[in-house]
Amino acid sequence: MGSHFRSYIWDPVLILSQIVLMQCIYYSFLGLWLAAVDSLVQTNRSLNQIFSYEVLGFATMQGRLSMMAFILNSLTCALGLLFFIRRGKQCLDFTITVHFFHMIGCWIYNAQLPAALSWWLVNVACMALMAVIGEYLCMRTELRAIPVNSGPKSNL
Predict the structure, then answer these.
(1) What b/e sequence results for 76-106 when a residue is b if at least 16 CB atoms lie within 10 Å of its CB, and e otherwise?
(2) pLDDT tens by residue, 95-119
(3) pTM for the structure as a whole
(4) How far apart are CA 53 and CA 143, in angstroms?
(5) Quick check: 77 and 26 in contact, CB under 8 A?
(6) Which pLDDT does position 152 carry in this prediction?
(7) pLDDT of amino acid 31
(8) Widest CA span of the chain, in angstroms?
(9) Cα 108 to Cα 7, 48, 51, 52, 119, distances in angstroms
């Protein structure tokens, strides 16, 4: 068997570590974005902003700013996909995995599945942004030209 360009080897430890890393990136940067947004309107920080589906809404200023933090976080996580996943065809998989675990966390935190339409709209929009931008960035680096050394040849 000849070697294949970018052959894929099943490595469950790598995949699990990438999932954990992307979850850490998701919650770390979401916390930073929410802290930045909270500093604009001087509101108290709490886990409700991350896990409570009732906080995300169009009616209040805090709800709209929280939605903005979630959307900015999807852009940050797209950069995480670029730096740590590095494969365009895996971006959608990791994006859905991150948001699936976030939904499970919200479900456990609220003791029920999120019922607000605004929560679902924000998370679907964030999934789309994170996947599309992450895949675009990864594909752009994957399709970069491979430099060929055209320097002087040595005399043999």
Answers:
(1) bbbebbbeebeebebbbebbebbbebbbeeb
(2) 999 999 999 999 999 999 999 999 9
(3) 0.85
(4) 39
(5) yes
(6) 65
(7) 95
(8) 77
(9) 39, 12, 9, 10, 15
